[in-house]
Amino acid sequence: MTQPTTTLDDQFTAAESRTRRSRKKSLSSNMAAYGFLAPAGFLVITFFLVPVVIIFYLSMTNLSTSNFTTDLSAMQFVGLENFRILFNDQFAAKIFFNTVFYVLVTLSLFNVTLALIVSLLSTHIERRAGFAFRAIWILPRITAATVYIMLWRRLAVEAPYGIINQVNTLLGQTTYNYLDARPWEFVIVVNGFIGVSFGMIIFTSAIESIPKDLLNASLVDGSTILQRIRYVILPLLRWPLLFVVTYQTLSLLTSFEQILLLTDGGPGLYATEVWSLTAYHRALSNYFGNAQWGYGSAFAVVLVIIGVVLAVIYMRVFRFNELVAEPKIEVL
Amino acid sequence: MEVKIENLKKQFGQVIGVKDLDLNVRDGEFVALLGPSGCGKTTTLLMLAGIYKPTDGTIRFGDRVVNQVQPRDRNIGMVFQSYALYPHMTVFGNISYPLKLKKVPKQEQMERVERVANTMGIGGLLDRRPGQLSGGQQQRVALGRALVKEPDILLFDEPLSNLDARLRLTMRSEIKQLQNRLGITAIYVTHDQVEAMTMADRIAVMNQGVLQAFDTPEDLYDRPKTLFVAGFVGNPPMNFADVSVMAEHGGFTARNESIRLQVPAERGQKAAAAGKVRMGIRPEDIHVVDEGDAVTAEVVIVEPLGRDAMLDVRFGSDQFLVLADPQKHIRAGDQVKLHFDMDSVQFFDLQSERSLLWN
Q1: What is the interface pTM, i.e. ipTM, of the complex?
Q2: Of A218, A222, A332, which is closest to B130 when you measure between CB atoms?
């Protein structure tokens, strides 16, 4: 009679095969996860990451219409030459400060202040009226840029086509092309009207998520509607405010299509030219058909770097992770 | 401050929130508005606070009609179920907020906040934010904020519902004592009848926007004027059965196909003329007995409550709740004999649902 015995060796082999099996299993279950991630991952890499890498590479070549090639290896590598030219470009400083001016003024007047005013107004009137009011403010955002700009141009241009000038004519005033006379005002208002909707949506939802009891309590405690906004509502909008400021700075830095369509950076030399528009002009729409892809890419690279640095600063200073992790307006 | 509500009505579009409410609250009285959710009690409170404007009728504080008066000009304090503390302000900031809005000088603000905070036992927490406080502490802060401006009327909107059971018990007596000592008129909305019964001088029972009864707790319990009040007040609730009350052998009996009970003359007399009526009897007025003139019933469920065992019993087509001594060790499926203590039986008209005894 033999008894079934197990040796140490047997036990080891058993353990080993168990480990192998579990490793195999974890790999295969991970494979499933990667499989599900693949389509989105492919899109992110192809359309977000690869372009940035290509731009960095292009910015170190002198690729232009005269030596155009699609063969990456045949492009002439010039190192940081484009950046040296850029920093010595006599207009770079002007364009830089144009950009800062454009971003700061649009952001502060429209994307934040007007957005806040619209949300406060529309949440303090009858609900449906408020909704309609906000819907109107979303129109500039959802109208195709070309159509939207055509409307503004139609408003601003010289008589007899411009609508403002038609009124001026009726009133016996002198007429002039507003886009030439007041380019910045128009650039900022046109972009500002688009920018209002984002902040408006964020602020409105934040205001509406403030518990009703809290708002009633303030009235019972003796506040007027304005005091309630000042002491209760605005302090509770701190996080949405920071979010809108950070997000909209980055979004304004890279926006150029409305300016392109409205003034194309003019009138005259770089009057309303902003950084991202320059990148476009240099790379894709230079004079005499001379597209300087390499030099334009250098502009784009500077913008990418500024954007990344700002984003990192915002994330650190405003503790962005916390901001997106949990709602900051909480019911106690 | 006296509060007089006359013919008060509130309508939201087609929905009627409160219908023809008449209510007089005496100076210094503690009145509870009691009813199931959606009965209009909070709507009434918010009209008193001035958050809602009445559709019709008048609200008077003393002799002043306040229908159109803004909340800030009513001199009221209010405590909410959610506490409604301002999360971005400290405890001091929360309590001093009403004073700041009244432009009370800084020094006086400090003194008054400190005084109220010490009364409420939260003197050491003035630097904290609401998020750092327990529910009980938050409720004390909310109460402090309501009291600091020395209001004429205190409004409570289910202030204890978010507290755990034990804390609710302490806060209940604290609020009652405080109100008693300060002598401020208080109107207290709750769906918890124990709260209403223990705290209020008088209780206004509401259902579907209509005032059902406005009485002292004892009267509501012993002499309910409507079927709704009888069923709503008391826990476990009153048992009901449809019976006919007849004069027999010089006395009165209430009977249907499964029960036949002697009714005391004064109650029986009032119910006898009405034909088929609804009889109500509280669980504590039915006793499990070993012998005697009794109804035999089958026990369906036994719920031990500690001091009592609650029996769900069935006889004929009727199902009653009965409180029994847990020492009797009654189990589901047992047959028990029940004695009905008919001295406190109630009778209601089936159509009008009004009491045949107390109207």
Answers
A1: 0.81
A2: A332
